[in-house]
């Protein structure tokens, strides 16, 4: 885990926390990394553009915008408000017009300086946003009417605004670009549908899911995931920003290739939910879609996955970040394709920002654990009180994909799971289906929420289950996925 550009890092003794002032010129970025533990913040180095710095203090970094304007992935900071970025946050604050920041706490940081806006990796993203705004305005003016719609399920109300799929290799900055475009569209008054078909990082939901939600309100700047985290969803407590209501489907796997058929089916479900949303809501239809995708590379043969997502969401703009090879191959594949509205598919290449941080296994594990804890217990800004209930083994319906079930196996989609101590500390998805529905229906049902198994008492045949809200558990089928594995005892 490191901030690119910081080079080799040399150990340094912790110092007392100090407040520093950072002055940013237009298009400069303040890149920072809040470590998992405060001792890890004791490193620094120099770069060709600006010295790296270290600040050491409590459990996070605090930032105050004292003049100018700055934003995190498209969401603006309010002047003079103190923002706290929690541990394990890697991100940047950027200004288009210049800004002064007051920073303190535990972090490693670096200012990326650019001699002119043209040298900044953000300028093409901003230009892309303006181009998308033009297309959205065209829909608003009636340019997106139904003349090209061949009726292939596009729903009522004509052709939606731009449907943009963002692709790239691992750690190329896909999610950051998706989030930035969503925030910029929202700031301009739009309400785009934002989706993620990458189960590795749940968007507005726990890892192991794919989801989509309308973004019509401001995102949470302090969220480690900058507005894509679980803190942006409805909960039993107050929220820092207006919540989003995601449609969520449960893959229960980290990688798509671990269960391609299920992922394909669920992407189909999410795609049809998106079409239904466009048909029902004119404002969302005009703003279109921003779709984040799993890391893909030509060498690994991931193109079919991207093509499937593109078809299901009727994508008409494909943004490829960083990989010339992926761009060329997708261009070739899309050449003769038309969307269900009869549109050609436009490919756009963006350079990868040198600021994108590589996240190692420990970073991702911490992120997952933090998301699960936050889902049940809230965060520093809001404390949630989950319910703990004790239920008999026979009073709940838990399903699981049979071992080895996958692409080439002819096994049932789901089977009743044997409840045992092995289930302890797993997080299960509660499905919006009936316990008597066929397995295939249950597997493809939308997720209502999650519960965690706090304890399994095999002798008494009872489970202790943690849930965010009260309610009888036996009414809904629960699915026990294969990932993320339990790392933590939530009540421990
Ligand atoms: N310019 C930047 N400066 C500092 N950090 C950045 C910058 N751009 C992106 N990051 C951070 O780098 C990390 C990786 O970025 P991001 O999640 O956008 O990549 P990704 O391609 O979606 O990753 P994955 O392949 O795992 O899905 C994130 O923590 C993000 O906040």
TrEMBL record:
Subcellular locations according to the entry: Nucleus
InterPro entries tied to this protein: Clp1, Clp1/Grc3, Clp1_C, Clp1_C_sf, Clp1_N, Clp1_N_sf, CLP1_P, P-loop_NTPase
All residue ranges annotated as the Clp1 C-terminal domain in the record: 384-485
Region (Disordered): 1-20, 38-59, 140-159
Pfam family membership, one: CLP1_P
Biased composition (Low complexity): 38-50
GO molecular function, one term: ATP binding
Key words, A-Z: ATP-binding, mRNA processing, Nucleotide-binding, Nucleus
GO BP terms in the entry: mRNA 3'-end processing; tRNA splicing, via endonucleolytic cleavage and ligation
Residue numbers binding ATP: 29, 171-176
Keyword Nucleotide-binding: yes
GO cellular component term of the entry, any: mRNA cleavage factor complex
Domain (Clp1 N-terminal): residue spans on this chain: 23-137
Superkingdom: Eukaryota
Domain Clp1 P-loop: residue ranges: 168-377
Chief localization: nucleus
PANTHER family: CLEAVAGE/POLYADENYLATION FACTOR IA SUBUNIT CLP1P, POLYRIBONUCLEOTIDE 5'-HYDROXYL-KINASE CLP1
Assembly information from the UniProt record: Component of a pre-mRNA cleavage factor complex. Interacts directly with PCF11.
Function: Required for endonucleolytic cleavage during polyadenylation-dependent pre-mRNA 3'-end formation.
UniProt similarity note: Belongs to the Clp1 family. Clp1 subfamily.
HAMAP family: Clp1
Record-given protein name: Polynucleotide 5'-hydroxyl-kinase GRC3
